[in-house]
Amino acid sequence: MDEPIVNRVANSVLVTLDLEELYPSGPRKYIDISPWLHEGLVLREKDFRAQLAKHDWSQYQDCFVAMHCDSDAIIPGWAYMLIATHLQPFARITHVGSLQSLETAILEQLVLTLDVSDYKGVPVIIKGCSDKEIPDNVYVQLTQKIQGVAKSVMYGEACSSVPLYKKR
Fold first, then answer.
1. Model confidence at 100, in pLDDT bands (50, 70, 90)?
2. Tens digit of each residue's pLDDT (9 = 90 or more) over 6-50
3. What gap in Å lies between CA 28 and CA 77, rounded to an integer?
4. Taking 70 as the threshold, does the pLDDT of residue 112 lie above it?
5. pLDDT tens digits for 120-131?
6. Are residues 46 and 16 in the same domain?
7. pTM summary value
8. Long-range CB contacts (within 8 A, 24+) of 14-18
9. Which of 9, 10, 23, 99 stands 20 to 30 A from 51 (CA)?
């Protein structure tokens, strides 16, 4: 009865991978391009280029930027590409879509560039509970990437994890 309580989780070789800890901080900004269109609906190339030329792009320094047209205008692909050329010196990530889809793109980029060498041959728990909403697709991509190197992959918390993969 006098034996000390041992924290087996803390003493185990389990490695917890928490996407929230890796989540990049920085401002997120949204650009609605409809004000740069004639009557919010028609893209006139000369006028559009003039609007881009007078816009202050430095406000996007070190930002994650989503761009979209909030009106029902049909926007040619080159328009977003042109905007991206203006954002390139400033923005960390430029994305066509909503702020929500920008967050998904940020996380997908994070998983894509994640160095998984620290997880080689060890059991990994992908932490599931976080304050940030992480899309299921990002967890799937992370699982596939970790599975290639880890001894085993689990989801959840060390005290109550769901086994997903175990190397044979």
1. very high
2. 444 454 689 999 999 998 999 999 999 999 999 999 999 999 999
3. 22
4. yes
5. 999 999 998 777
6. no
7. 0.80
8. 14/122, 14/123, 14/124, 14/125, 14/158, 15/118, 15/119, 15/122, 15/123, 15/124, 15/125, 16/124, 16/125, 16/127, 16/158, 17/119, 17/124, 17/125, 17/126, 17/127, 17/142, 17/146, 18/127, 18/130
9. 99
Total domain count, the chain: 2
Based on the fold, state whether residues 80 and 132 are members of the same structural domain: no
| 19, 30, 83, 88 from 95: Cα distances, Å | 20, 10, 11, 11
> What does the alpha-carbon distance between residue 129 and residue 60 come to, in Å, rounded to a whole number?
31
Q: How far is 51 from 114, CA to CA, in rounded Å?
A: 38
Residue 99: inside a domain, yes or no?
no
- Strands (E) located in the chain: 15-17, 28-32, 64-68, 93-96, 123-127, 152-157, 160-166
DSSP-assigned states of every residue in 45-67: HHHHHHHHHHS-GGGGTT-EEEE
* Alpha-carbon span 93 to 106, nearest angstrom: 8
Residue pair 42/76 in contact by the 8 Å Cβ criterion: no
